[in-house]
Amino acid sequence: MTAQEALVLLTEGNQRYQTGQYAHPNTDTARRDSQTGGQAPFAIVLSCADSRVAPELLFDRGIGDLFIIRVAGNVIDDHAIGSIEYAVAHLGTKLIVVMGHESCGAVGASLGDADPGGHIGSIVKKIKPAVNMAKQMEGDLLTNSIKVNAQIVGEELKETKPILSDAVKNAGVEVVSAYYKLSSGEVEFLS
């Protein structure tokens, strides 16, 4: 499946989610049984760990469809990158979605200068460049910061050597950023 075909499936699934017209594809016992020998997810989704942001539900997808990495603020580190590389290099997945979301607490914690304490500070530090860029933009600082953060992470993934940058240049892998609206259920794909 191409990245564009995968994006169409995600868009269609999100439209079903928004309207409550779920198809619940690939959720029966036959699908579960068919996946015991291996997986071939058609999309990778890096999203926030927020309990309100469940990619399988937001995109109305089932078992084996999505390869999901969740971490507060949808930031990346070597572990997240390695997971994404695995799906690209070994599972043949062509689409990577980096999805921020409305009212993200991790990004919200990054707007101020207070030390959040513990290891939360490492997340805030990763998000700060997005906040600094968003401060130059018109509109809501939190919303802009969330969107810019997703876009920055997407660009970082495109340039990650050796596996991802090569896959983007030579193997038809695409990275897109998105913003999930808690209030409507819409996933807005960012350009």
Protein architecture, described:
The chain has a 5-stranded mixed sheet with strand order 2-1-3-4-5. It is built from 8 helices and 5 strands; from the N terminus they run ααβαβαβααααββ. Strand 4 and strand 5 form a beta hairpin. It has one domain: Carbonic anhydrase (Beta-carbonic Anhydrase, Chain A, 3-Layer(aba) Sandwich), CATH 3.40.1050. It has about 190 residues and is an alpha/beta fold.
Question: Summarize this, please?
Answer:
The chain has about 190 residues and is of the alpha/beta class.
Categorize the overall geometry.
Answer: globular
CATH classification, class level: Alpha Beta
- List low-pLDDT spans: none
Portion in helices: 40-55%
CATH level-two architecture: 3-Layer(aba) Sandwich
Secondary-structure-derived class = alpha/beta
Strand content: 5-15%
Question: Could you give a short account of the major beta sheet?
Answer: 5 strands, mixed
Oligomer: single chain
Number of domains: 1
CATH superfamily: Carbonic anhydrase
CATH topology: Beta-carbonic Anhydrase, Chain A
Radius of gyration: 17 Å
Counted by DSSP, the helix tally is 8
In round numbers, the mean pLDDT is: 97
Distance between the termini: 22 Å
Largest sheet: spatial strand order: 2-1-3-4-5
How would you spell out the order of helices and strands?
HHEHEHEHHHHEE
